[in-house]
Amino acid sequence: MENELLKTKKQESINVLAGGIAHDFNNILFAVIGNLSLAERLIEESSPIGEYLRAARKASLRAKELTLKLLNFASDAEPVKATESLPALVREAAGLVLAGSNKIQCSFEISEDLWVVSMDKEQISQVIVSLVQNAEQSMSAGGSISIRMVNKELVEDQVVGLYPGKYVKISLTDEGQGIAVQHLDKIFDPYFSTKERSSNKGAGLALAIVHSIINKHEGKITVESTPGGGTTFILYLPAQSSDRAIMPGASAILA
Which domains does the chain have, with CATH numbers? Predict the structure, then answer.
């Protein structure tokens, strides 16, 4: 519990810093991108300078995307929750990442009586996309991803940081290279990454944002991993009583 409180305090401090920097940096980028676009219009299409201007604008747009991620990470806005079909959302998000992939197979195991979850659809979709991308990147030679969704009723102190009650438990397991023991405690820290910093994959924000989103949903995310033996991310999302999940195509019966 002390470790969880320490992580929360550290993340709050980072949120304030990241939000301030990202906001100011975004304003600067707005001027840079605008002037680059104007400069492109003033030169002839055949001019070699255009190639450098386009490259600079492309890099600036990538920087803008990063500042937006920072702003989302630092945002204190509460999720806009609604009752959604969790199985349908998870399948759709995983499909977006793995569409066209011949090397990665994804299987699903879903309880028929899965409880309803009240969630921000866009945010939880972002969580699944980030976790599936992380799994895909850990299996460069190919492999399989297993996603399991079950009902879980927790008792006092069963999972640190969660109240007793009903939750939907999502387990996402890959066959990747795994995570070293010394890195497990840092995996959700902003800008921590075991990937190359020179690539987009090494930004180190995706899992920090995932952690932040799950916390705002009053849930929890943990990770279990063995070097060379794959990784499992486990998510708990509070359930809406014992109602059955809304399945695609189903509609309510009104009196």
Answer: 2-74 (1.10.287.130), 82-244 (3.30.565.10)
